[in-house]
Amino acid sequence: MKEKVNQHYVPQFYLKNFANDEKKRSVAGYALKTKTPICNIAIDETASKKYYYGDDLRVENWFAEMEGKWAQIVQNIISRKSFPINKDDYWMLVYFVAISSVRVLKYGNVINKMINGVMEHGHRFGQVASPHTVSGHPISYMDSHLLKNYDIYEKLKPLLLYNRTNQGFLTSDNPCVMYNQFFVSQNLPFYSIRHGGVQLFMPISPCFCLCFYDGAAYKAISSTKGKVVKIAETAKITELNKLFLRNADMMVYYKQKTICDTVINTLIGEHKFYQHEPIVKSLIPIVGIKMESINDSFDIGLFNVRKSFIKR
Fold first, then answer.
1. What DSSP designation does 186 have?
2. What is this structure's pTM?
3. Alpha-carbon distance 306 to 53, whole Å?
4. Which of 16, 129, 186, 272 has a CA 20 to 30 Å removed from the CA of 88?
5. CB of 30 within 8 A of CB of 38?
6. CA angle at residue 94 from 138 to 222, to 5 degrees?
7. Residue 147 contacts residue 63 (beta carbons within 8 Å)
8. How far apart are CA 47 and CA 6, in angstroms?
9. Whether the Cβ atoms of residue 83 and residue 158 lie closer than 8 Å to each other
10. What is the pLDDT of residues 247-264, one digit of tens each?
């Protein structure tokens, strides 16, 4: 079971779609904290942590089984340039996107900050005898998020973004991006998956990006009957890559030669770090997390806000 020690929170099959070599062993990347470009990162060694989902391997084995199915569905999208026709495959894809937003290290760290803050604060008020530090993935919170919000994921409309430029999509160690074009345009400070106007983006290769959006809030510009939008403007790809970079935690990944060094340096130069910070009310035993939303404006030019939604 040695291979199950290093547990990936971004699937290897996913990163292989951005691989530099034919054998799909490495990917180019950029370490954000140290501001270090890395030409070749071993895919089997990145976006992973020792026993992140537990040493009983229950969750890790489940992910291994599911990733075989997800990998085939994603590969079919790339080769056929369209969403799955089969309904079971489509809902399996939606589930992949939904779980990708909560299985990552960034999400786990946010929840663990809250858990550790609750225990430490509870100890201060005599409610917890001996607090201990939680560091693995909070599996129960991942399950809870999916159960509570899957009805929202089911209602979102699909759109496949087909990049026809010479500049490829990049991705990161937090590859599923939540955005809300309407909230950002109105300077509203916070949004979640349950707010109207939500948009999800997940690049799956340098040429393709999955998008799921609130159809009641937006009308996609230039979409075809096959739910595909071909993007020929480099400026739009740059804006999308800025959004994907903004959502990153520690690492950005991309395929060499699909994004030049000048573009990467420009994108990295504009990157801003945001951290989720605990909120502790010291006089009473209440602890929470100051959640972040992406409130920067990105001119991706893919959606128009419906007038009916604005009136609502």
1. T
2. 0.89
3. 42
4. 16
5. yes
6. 135
7. no
8. 10
9. yes
10. 999 999 999 888 877 778
